[in-house]
Specification:
This protein is of the alpha+beta class. Helix content is 42%, strand content 16%. A five-stranded antiparallel β-sheet has the order 10-9-8-5-11, with helices on both faces. A hairpin with a 4-residue loop joins strand 8 and strand 9. The longest helix is centred in the C-terminal third of the chain and has 29 residues. The protein is globular, with a radius of gyration of 21 Å. The protein starts with 17 loop residues before the first strand and ends with a helix. The structure holds zinc ion (2 copies). This is Suppressor of anucleate metulae protein B.
Length: 359
């Protein structure tokens, strides 16, 4: 079970947890009434703050869309999963029929948190890249800027491990891609859409809290759109990536991302509403619009996968690029790195300055 921490004293809060009933969407948790009372004055700044609400809702929407995308285009053939305390062990099938698209293992009757862990495993870069257009749109009004931030994990035990059928185990990722925004409420927030693999299930978390609670250290800051551009370059046959990975997976994901954006556009036309509007609807209308948007995206992506399974269309288009892939130059990792502007919360400023010196 994901743990919830008191926003005041930072200790794990017992369930059922105390929240501020005025702002249930921008969760502030209290372990007891004493912590709640201590926070009464400081919380007034955040309570029902429209910027904060837009930030948290954008995070919820982006994460839900990303999970929908991943579930439709799952890239791992899972035999079964086993939970040992805090660690979810994913056992992979030997010799799956294909390497690219697999049915997400809903037949395993996973709990919601196990499902999110499975959806997010090894997908932090994808989560940043494939939601790039959407995050740009949804976060435009509430923020001064968006950056892609790479954190390194200071903890040693991993929360999600992949067991191959030959007995070897992937020891997980120590680098983690997220977005960081400087919001117009004076706070910096981390958008960690694929954090569930590290037992961090929230889409949005204040920057200071993220570094402290998740034991993460900022490693690199890049322009928003960096990872998407990098993947697009692979698809266009301009460069290759350092990782040992079948490049055709980027081709399929890139096509699917376009389908997803088309689905969003058609949903907007049908409903006479841009998705940005969802950020300030009342909660009931938001929930209904979000559900119908996710259904639309899922149906279109299922259609794409069905096409792919029937005639292998994307792979045929990919063959020309695959042939020259080996001879391509590696993508220059320095490209797109930015010097932080140095505004935002004190913690983000401090981290940014530290990064600037270290570079
Ligand atoms: Zn407390
Ligand atoms: Zn409140």
């Amino acid at each position: 079970m994901p743990q919830i921490f008191c926003s005041v004293c930072d200790t794990p809060a017992p369930q059922p947890v105390l929240i501020c009933l005025q702002c249930p969407e921008t969760p502030t948790y209290y372990c007891d009434t004493r912590c709640r009372d201590r926070d009464r004055i400081p919380h007034q700044k955040n309570c029902n703050n429209p910027v904060r609400k837009a930030i948290y809702r954008a995070g919820d929407l982006l994460q839900s869309i990303f999970y929908t995308f991943r579930e439709a285009l799952y890239d791992t053939s899972v035999a079964h999963v086993r939970r040992n305390g805090d660690v979810l062990r994913i056992h992979l099938n030997p010799n799956p029929a294909q390497v690219l698209l697999h049915r997400f293992p809903n037949h395993l009757n996973l709990s919601q948190s196990d499902k999110e862990q499975l959806l997010s495993v090894l997908s932090c870069t994808d989560s940043v890249a494939y939601t790039c257009d959407l995050s740009k749109r949804l976060l435009k009004d509430a923020t001064f800027g968006i950056e892609e931030t790479l954190f390194c994990d200071l903890r040693s035990p991993f929360s999600t491990l992949r067991h191959h059928s030959d007995g070897t185990v992937d020891d997980g990722e120590t680098m983690h891609s997220t977005l960081t925004v400087e919001a117009k409420d004076g706070e910096a927030y981390v958008f960690d859409l694929a954090g569930a693999q590290n037992n961090q299930f929230k889409a949005v978390i204040p920057f200071d809290e993220y570094c402290r609670r998740e034991s993460r250290d900022l490693w690199k800051i890049r322009q928003h759109g960096y990872h998407f551009k990098r993947f697009e370059g692979v698809v266009a046959g301009e460069h290759k990536l350092k990782e040992q990975c079948d490049p055709s997976v980027y081709f399929i994901s890139g096509e699917a991302q376009k389908r997803m954006m088309d689905a969003v556009g058609r949903w907007e036309a049908q409903n006479g509403m841009r998705i940005e509007r969802l950020l300030d609807l009342d909660f009931q209308s938001y929930a209904e619009c979000k559900a119908s948007l996710l259904r639309k995206i899922r149906a279109d992506l299922d259609g794409y996968v069905a096409e792919w399974e029937q005639n292998g269309r994307p792979l045929a288009a990919w063959d020309g690029i695959r042939a020259k892939y080996a001879s391509l130059k590696e993508f220059d990792a320095k490209e797109g790195t930015v010097v932080p502007r140095g505004s935002g919360t004190r913690a983000y400023r401090t981290w940014s300055a530290k990064y600037k010196e270290g570079d």
